[in-house]
Amino acid sequence: MGSDDKETAVTAKVDYRDGRPTTLHLHKMKLVFDDPREGTREYIFDQETVTLGSAPDNDVVIRDSRVSREHCRIIHEPYGYLVQDLGSTNGTLVNRVRVREAYLKSGTALTLGGVDLRFSTFGERVELAPSTRDSFGAVVGRSRRMREVFAILERIAPTNTTVVLEGETGSGKEVVARTLHARSRRAREPFVVFDCGAVPKDLIESELFGHERGSFTGAVQTRQGLFEVAHGGTLFLDEIGELTPELQPRLLRALEHREIRRVGSNRPIPVDVRMIAATNRDLEAEVRAGRFREDLYFRLSVVRIRLPQLRERPEDIPLLTRHFLRQAPFNRGHDGEPHVKGLSDDAAAVLMAYHWPGNVRELLNVVERATSFADGDQIEIGDLPPHLLAATRRGTHGLDESTEPFPGLPSNAGFKQAKEAWIERFEREYLSSLLSRCGGSLSAAARAADLDRKHLRKLVRKHGLAAGAVDPDEPGPA
Predict the structure, then answer these.
(1) SS3 for 370?
(2) Which pTM value belongs to this model?
């Protein structure tokens, strides 16, 4: 059947307004048939491929002598549902017409060897509210931006939906991909990572699709590609924007036909993988510039998730730091327990004022370094890297610039006196900015800064900022 029979549908789609996710659309298929032994049977799927046949490992098992063991499959493509006959003995019929493959519309009658099924589709519309959790597996954050991401991840993790993760380097794309795999139905199967930008371009094809012995110089033995290694599980392609234009059609074919061919072979090999891709590039701009295929872009971008930079969610930094201190192997004592357990308020304020060009990965490195310098059970300002302290002191990342870093401080001031002056100035500038962002609400400011409200109120009074602060739990001004 021709392209006019296509019914546009995607497994899942996210609507955005002003850059924020608002609605998730899930598209599902239903198959109904009358089984003489078990009565009417109904199946609902949101996965990308559904197999039908008499063999017990099919998604839909039809115990009928007229149905082949591997009779046909229905593939959910970006443009609709495609049924493919798998060389069955008695054929696959769509509305009584025998086909090799055809696009299906909702309400289509399918016949497998003589057994009639009814195919239909339906959509589920979910209004996305920020998750109430402050983590999703290994992904941590209590900011609204991250809880909006969690709301999407919670719904799409169990599906086979193809996902593109967008964000700056170090923003946690691989951690999100691993968590999606761990929360999916494929969790017991392989999770395979391939960095498209870390492998020489002339080797990428062999890495992804494998090769036969003798297919090129140096191919001394047959080798499986990563698609085969990931069969049944998840393939994570990092930096997908680095994939050469020559290889993009091969990747598109593998995704659409669920089969690959090794280099030097004409034999197709069926593969079943969930694809998660990541990029720090703007793929839409790459398409417009002709560097990335439009059809591959639409095939990959079933659900696009943008991960915010760390500087867009500074309130998550204390939570992330505690998470690293609990989980990271570098913070384990001889008894296996963390020897550094927390972060001082002053150190937390410094971390939250920094710009974090390296995002979460840079924060992890800073925490690891600070842990090795810490004398007590918490990280103090003096344990932080000098470049981070210098950047926040200069005012390049949130503080006022001044000819004198500490006006009025004697030139012969000692380290302790200079440190106290720096903290004083930092606290005043940080709290002023924090209260401004939170509309003067002490409760909101305490949550955003991850500080105890009583301690925050004390600091606000100390720096003479109480006049502009509001505490709903007190009858008068703070």
Answers:
(1) helix
(2) 0.68
Give Cβ neighbours of residue 441 (< 8 Å, ≥ 6 apart): 469, 470, 471, 472
Query: Rounded to whole angstroms, how far apart are CA atoms 210 and 376?
Result: 52
What's the number of CA atoms in the CB half-sphere (13 Å) around residue 244? 11
In this structure, are residues 365 and 357 in contact, taking their beta carbons and an 8 Å threshold?
no
The one-letter amino acid code at 334 reads H
Beta strands in 18-152 (DSSP E): 20-35, 39-45, 49-53, 60-61, 72-77, 80-85, 92-94, 97-99, 101-104, 109-112, 115-127, 135-136, 139-140
244 close to 201: Cβ distance less than 8 angstroms: yes
As a whole number of angstroms, the distance between CA 325 and CA 315 comes to 17
Query: Residue 236 forms beta bridges with which residues?
Result: 193, 276
pLDDT at 477: 41
Q: pLDDT by residue (tens digit) across 131-162?
A: 999 999 999 999 999 999 999 999 889 888 88
CB-CB contact of 445 with 459 (8 Å): no
φ and ψ at residue 223, rounded to 5 degrees? -140, 135
3-state class of 408 per DSSP?
Answer: coil
Q: Are 169 and 280 in contact (CB under 8 A)?
A: yes
- Residue carrying structure tokens 């969610």: 313
Q: Which two tokens stand for residue 449?
A: 């800064």
Query: Where in 221-332 does DSSP place strands (E)?
Result: 234-238, 259-260, 269-270, 274-279, 303-306
Choose among 436, 426, 148: nearest CA to 305.
148
